[in-house]
Amino acid sequence: MRHFIAWAVKNRQNVVLFDDTWASTTEFPSPEILQYMHRRGLKTILNVHPGNAYRLDPDVSKQDLCDKRDPRMGIYYPVYCVDKPGFWKLVDKRLKTAAKYRHMLAGLICNQDEGPLGWRAEESAEGVDPVDNSLAGFAEENSGTRYLKPKLYTSACSTCGEVPNAAKWARALQRLNGPQGSVAQGLPPVGHGRAHCAVADPDDELVAREVVPHLAPGSLSMVWVLPNCNRANRVESWPRLIDEMNRKDNGKRKVFLLRELIYGCSADMPLAVPSTLDSIDIDFEIMRKYESTATCAGGTYVMHSLGWLMDWYSMRKQWDPSARWQSWLPTNLSQVLGREAVELAVEALELVRDVQMYDGLVEGEYCAYYTMWGLNPHHVAPETIPLPNSRGPFRYDKVRGNWWGSRRRLVEAGARDKEGVYTAENLAPADRRLRRLRGKLDAADARITRIEGLLAPGVNRMFWEEHLVRTLRYTTAFLRSRTAVALSYSDYAQAREQVRQGRDTSAVLAEGEKVVREALNEQDFYIRRRPGFGIDYPYEMNPDTLRWLLEAWRGLRQNPEKCLDLDLLAFLDRAETEVAQGH
Amino acid sequence: MEATGRVPEIALAAEGFALDIIDDGAERVAVLRAEGKLGLQYAVYALAEHFLGVRFVHPLFDLAPEVPPAPSELHLDETPAMGLRILYEAAHTLPDLRGTGILREGTQGHTHTTATSGPGGGRIGSAIMSACGTS
Fold it and tell me: Which residues 58-117 of A are in CB contact (within 8 Å) with B?
């Protein structure tokens, strides 16, 4: 950890903020780390909200919890009721601990972890189709023009009396910044910690309008976003309203954007997400328009997924935001990597970014969570296969397993194409887009190979192999694997139609077998050789399903008419079902 | 040095720094001026960056070129654009080591900084590494 802290100083940071600080009962970071930070001159920001009750604090009881769980919660955490003594007992406890570190506080915030994060929010929405909006998949549809319209102003519990979420947070701020609050204890005023993951625009503005008037002068607030779907334009109401407040009373309130650059809690795959580099630049462009903006910070999983690069760039961007990543990288890496290799890396990153974003089809960091990437033809070609009331058979919550660690299905259990949606004609635009994406992956791979050839022998070669070449190569393998599976869908639809028409199917069936084999090989490549991780990633395609499909395609080449038995969805469902049953 | 005109006079911003490398023929001198404890550390690391070519790309790896740039003259005056600059630790590195098993308290990192001597470069490079450590 000291290396990490020192890394901040080396790259001109003055604050290290720890994710989920005191989220439940975890004392994090340790006093030793805080002491080391102080010696280096670093400050931190602490959360004084009780947080969630994932692990019930020993000083409180279950009676202190809100008895109504949605949608104030995160994924699965109960929270403390603002009107119960336990809530304030925990606040006092945290303020007392914070007081020990008052010499190194850049600010205090409340509500870092209690937010309607979007997942579960949709359950209470009125007149809204619940769409993919969950931990690993909400980026899928909560993007571009397909925003959710959740109703997040919902009730709390029987004790606090149907207090809307924002009112609860305002009430907490009132007391924390009141006569007995943090300032009276010699601490900074408390700001708000907005957890903005997949919350729709209207709600965010509503929450900001309710909360901002309760921010004390001099307070520092945070808007926290996950590495997907939202760029800073989705949270602009916070700096705008804080600017308005400051103009009225010269209150010098500040707010910063905190972007989790890659999801770091083992839930997503350790693959490169280059669109995040764009997000760092875009966040700055948007947030710097506002006087109250303190910074746009980023953080990530640092060991893989190009996390080193994103963190590094985020840090230096805060010192000097004048360059965009495409020009910043050659300036700052050429001496240690070589100019040609850096330029190739920038090109490869842009190509992978284009593929990640479906060739410009989506807005924002739509695919920062790769979990669902590429397998839903509704996403790949929404112009021809519109989302069927968000109830499509490829929908995230229909194909995922449990939260952590399970493999995903290719299609909803029991799915059938009763309406005949998945025809060769309807799938053709998706097929064309996927082939374009595959071409970009070829181009990226060519550049990665050239980079490898340029690496001089020596210790740095190991670094670049591990932290650049392999990461990019495994990412393209992953994307290629998904692309290949999705390509087989249109092959299957074509084969069925050709059989019906009595035409020769040999070419399309050979192609189907080829792309499924490609999918299996590519997935095998990135799963088995990826360093530092287990063999299986959460939400990965089941390799046994791919093997089943490969056998099935071989069988179809012998007996093409067999594809008439099953439509595309039934074919995929059968693969998953038979594999699950051990066939 | 300011009085003799060997380095320009500057007004440093909070946590800002200035770095001057001057070569008068007899010796090469690095002059670090900074505002505050952090500013001084930034200046030392900036010297490593500009003189040795070090890049602090990763918490466990500082990279340096085989041949350092070792400029004979350099005048830098840097001011942070953002008053608050935050590194966000989102990997849950401690206490349960979720996220990464390598950044472990007490573990020695594999630091690959090399203070290769260029023309006159070794003297300053050694001083940097000795003063700051590499982590």
Answer: 106
